[in-house]
Structure formats: structure tokens, C-alpha cells
Specification:
Length: 310
């Protein structure tokens, strides 16, 4: 790996100061889109998605196109040379010779880091198995900042599949580095937050947290409720998936007890865990979250390509 190239594998690759700078840059892009319209002219992004995705891939592509750059890539491993037996490292090595920056998603944990050994361009982890999803986290942080006006002193409930939900793992990691955070983990016993996060991240940063399997008993205390789907593709057993799939369904009745300014988030796709009736509640912010994700990806692309506009 070339030491002069900056990549993003894990949200902790960025300092809090850098994350805050990315948030300011994203807000600036949001307010002055014209200023950035040609910022990436003659730059090319590859989106290499070895695992299905709609929003993350399109969000990266929209981000690069809105910066005036180009995009190439594939949306499905079956249309790549992986089918012929090529290793991911070789695929990335080849593509690194054709583009300026790569966004890659892979079902194996750690694959983007391993694949980056031979590249000469920045690599962005767009989701690796049940591990991390740092760019979703960047968009989530911007959403929280915009909706609450702060990234401190918040009580955040994480609900659903906390074992395999990579968006949760990255967001817990990032928020643990901000002041005054209080976490509530809401999940069935089978889908609890992994020990490595409790031991490594929560203890290290002395974050107060509790675990429960009843959303009704904690919803009134939350400033943010981050819902997630049960990750079907990471289960070994269909029966377990079916048993846990509809464990939590957030509906208007449950929300009666929540704060009036609660922020409801979800990385999407939603399956059943948020009833459609909630979409019209002013506290539902999961579709706004999509926009924040694109602006943070624009800011990240500029940073990793060392492009400064002022
Ligand atoms: C998430 C992911 O891929 O981890 N989706 C996304 O990137 N917006 C969440 C999920 O798939 O449940």
C-alpha cells in the first residue's frame, strides 16, 4: 500500500476533527452546489460492488457526477472477472490503473483493506460484510447535526440487528468519540451488540449504555432512534431469520410515548421494521438521511483526492 494515499476503511481512520471538517464541507457544498460543479472534472471514480446495493452505489455515483467527474464500475460480482477466478486484490490492482478513486463493497469483512495492498489510488469501504460502513456513518452524523443542531449530549437508541448491522457498528464507533453520549441498545437476545464494541469502544470511551429488548420501555428517553432491518443475508438459518424478522415494528402507537423532537433514522432498505404510516410523521428523517449521505460522500471524495476549492 502506498503510504501517501489516504483511504477510508474504518470510521476511526478519520479523527473527530477531520469528521467535523467533512461535515462543514458537506454543508458548504449543500449551500453552494455551483461552486463545486466542476471540482472533479477529469477525475474518475470506480464503484466496485461485489455485494448488492442500490442507495450506496447510486449515492457515490451521484456524488461524483455532481462534482463534475466520471464514474465506471459494476453492480454485481457476477459481471466481473471474479467469475473467472480473479482475486479481489488483482481486480482492485487493475482498476486502480484506470481511475483516480475506488468505492468498493464486499461481503467479506476486511476485504477492502486486504484488496488495497496493491493500489495506488484511494479506496473507500462502501460496506464490508457485517463489519463496517463508514460512509453511511458520515451521512448519519450530518443528519444528526442538521436535525438536532449538535453532536454532543444525546441519548441514542439503536434498534434491530445490532450483531450484523454494519451501519450500527460504524456509527457507535464514531459517536463514542463525541461528548456526553448515552447509548441504548434495543435488540432481541440473539442480535445484541458485539462484545468487541462493548470492550473496545464503549469501555474505552466510558460511554454509559444499557441493553434491553423492549423498545416501549425506553422510547420516551431517546433523542435519536436508529432503526435497522434484520440482516437476512448474514443468517445461516432461515428459521432464525423468520423468527426475528418482525421482532420490532415501529408504528405511530409506539411513537405516542416518544419525545416531540425525536429524530427517527434508518440506513434503508426498510423491510417491516418501520410501518409506512410513520413516514408522514415529522420525526421521520430516514429519507432526508439519503441526501446527507450524498453530500458527505462528495466531501469525502474531495478530501481523499486532495482537492481544495478556496
Ligand atoms: C445498509 C448496508 O448496506 O449496510 N444500507 C445502506 O448502505 N444504506 C443497511 C442495510 O443493508 O440494512
Amino acid at each position: 500500500m502506498n503510504d501517501n494515499i489516504r483511504s477510508l476503511f474504518d470510521i476511526s481512520d478519520l479523527s473527530v476533527e477531520e469528521i467535523n471538517q467533512l461535515i462543514s464541507l458537506a454543508e458548504n457544498i449543500m449551500e453552494n452546489p455551483d461552486k463545486y460543479r466542476n471540482a472533479c472534472a477529469n477525475k474518475r471514480l470506480a464503484t466496485l460492488f461485489f455485494e448488492p446495493s442500490t442507495r450506496t452505489r447510486l449515492s457515490f455515483e451521484a456524488a461524483m457526477l455532481d462534482l463534475g467527474g466520471n464514474v465506471i464500475g459494476f453492480a454485481d460480482a457476477s459481471s466481473s472477472s471474479t467469475q473467472k477466478g480473479e482475486t479481489v486484490t488483482d481486480t482492485i490492482h487493475v482498476v486502480g490503473n484506470l481511475v483516480d478513486i475506488i468505492a468498493m463493497r464486499h461481503p467479506k469483512e476486511g476485504a477492502p483493506l486486504a484488496a488495497a495492498r496493491k493500489t495506488v489510488v484511494p479506496i473507500i469501504n462502501a460496506g464490508d460484510g457485517g463489519h463496517n460502513h463508514p460512509t453511511q456513518t458520515l451521512g448519519d452524523l450530518l443528519t444528526i447535526e442538521k436535525e438536532t443542531g449538535r453532536l454532543e449530549n444525546l441519548t441514542i437508541g439503536f434498534c434491530g440487528d445490532l450483531t450484523f448491522g454494519r451501519t450500527i457498528h460504524s456509527l457507535v464507533n464514531a459517536l463514542s468519540r463525541y461528548k456526553g453520549m448515552n447509548f441504548v441498545f434495543i435488540s432481541p437476545d440473539e442480535l445484541k451488540i458485539p462484545d468487541y464494541l462493548k470492550e473496545g469502544t464503549l469501555k474505552k470511551h466510558k460511554i454509559p449504555y444499557m441493553e434491553t429488548n423492549r423498545i416501549e420501555s425506553v422510547i420516551m428517553n431517546l433523542d435519536i432512534l436508529y432503526m435497522t432491518r434484520v440482516q437476512k443475508e448474514r443468517f445461516f438459518n432461515e428459521a432464525d431469520y423468520l423468527r426475528l424478522r418482525d421482532y420490532y415494528i415501529l408504528n405511530l402507537k409506539k411513537l405516542e410515548f416518544a419525545k416531540k423532537d425525536l429524530v427517527i433514522m434508518h440506513p434503508l432498505p426498510r423491510v417491516n421494521e418501520i410501518a409506512v404510516e410513520v413516514d408522514d410523521d415529522p420525526r421521520a428523517k430516514y429519507f432526508d438521511q439519503v441526501k446527507c449521505g450524498k453530500y458527505m460522500r462528495m466531501a469525502l471524495i474531495l478530501k481523499l483526492l486532495n482537492i481544495e476549492m478556496d
